[in-house]
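During the no-cost extension, the postdoctoral fellow (Dr. R.K.) reprocessed legacy sequence entries with the updated structure-token encoder. One reprocessed record is reproduced below for audit purposes.
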Amino acid sequence: MSNPIKQKRPKYTLEFKKDAAKLVLENGYSQEEAAKNLRISKSAISRWVITEKEPPKATADRKAKPSLEQHAEILRLRKENDQLRMEREILKKAAVFFAKEVE
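Re-encoded structure tokens follow.
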């Protein structure tokens, strides 16, 4: 049996997503045309168009999806949070080291 090769999903910038959605919402392209011209999946552009068109709404059944800007901010904050945790761990280790030096 062969192992299937996992394909990584391409990552698009917030600006690219917004511009792609604008092609449909403001420039009159169909989702199919925009997807074909940009060489992306129709489902991706469909999600971006919906996100740009409708503000997120919370329902009883599911949480509201963040806007493209909110999603980018969440990713940025998670990365910053990871960095701060790492720095905190380094400082803890340094404090233990210097406490031993003083004794």
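Helices lie at 14-25, 31-38, 42-53, 68-102. Residues 48 and 57 are 15 Å apart (CA to CA). The remaining legacy entries will be reprocessed before the final report is submitted.
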